[in-house]
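Hey Z.,

So I finally got round to the phosphoric acid mono(formamide)ester thing we talked about over coffee. Here's the setup:
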Amino acid sequence: MGSRSMSVDAASRAAQATRVPAATGDGGVADEPVADPVDGSSGPHLHHLLGIDDLGGAAGIEEVMRLTGSFLEVSERRIPKVPALRGKTVASLFYEDSTRTRLSFETAAKRLSADIMSFNVSNSSVRKGESLRDTALTIEAMGVDAIVVRHSSSGAPHRVAGWVEASVVNAGDGWHEHPTQALLDCYTARQRLGSLSGRHVVIVGDVKHSRVARSDMLAFTALGAEVTLVAPPTLLPPSLAGWPARVSHDLDDVLPGADVVYLLRMQRERMSEALIPSLREYTAGYGLTVARSRLMRADAIVMHPGPMNRGVEIAPEVADLPQSTIVDQVRNGVAVRMAVLYLLLGAGLDMVPT
Ligand code: CP
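And the result:
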């Protein structure tokens, strides 16, 4: 699974060296060369973002973090827009429901001055039986530079990437990966905690069905954090071979040592069998209740990708604590997706102050 992102050769990279908006403190835009996400040289490299490994480890993730900081500054301007992707078109191809990811990709594209082509399965020719391949080729034929794909099948964005010339971004595929969620999670955790090196990230809940858990584990460990997965045995994958994480079934035991408590949504739509006796028993063992949150250190943070099942994996009062980063995650999601679209499409475009 997971095609490696396409690279261009060094000469081409040098020839196409690009500029990015950097925070100037005065509302303007300063030009800075983009470091190659993989080898540190200047210029474009990434063609698709299908999984965290496409970023080539810590250096690539750090590059997204650096760009995110610049685009957050853009987002705070009176007119939060730069012309970086003027003339480019970004299509969103969502076969599964979404609020945060879809809206933030579309907002990100607009803030970069790209055009948006929005596709809704529920009122499209998919309902007449059109295949994923034919749908992707149809969209590409209209002239798009990037396609943002969400699908309930693991690997669907990888298939699309094999059919089209456009860049493809995985916006969540089945139980597999959700790379931009992990990037915004890392950015947000670092905003609160500083360096993630040596930090203890505890990911709690429905790991088995969670693309977020997989991408987060890869991204957090790439940045030097240690990850512990906490779940009942039925909500863990059959094999965790190769997963760089410890496993626990006792949330109360690990909470005092956590820097980040990351709660996963109970994905009832993906459960085809009874994996837990009841939601009430799940909450009793694995929910971050008010009483259980008191086991956390005062400086630890609470994260959730949304949408939340308040009262199931997280108590409503805990979701609204100052230690909760849930709103920050959404806010940072726009800037992270600007960074990703910029890395994929932004090569060689002039950055002009708006
Ligand atoms: N976190 C996340 O992917 O949310 P949406 O399903 O609303 O996009």
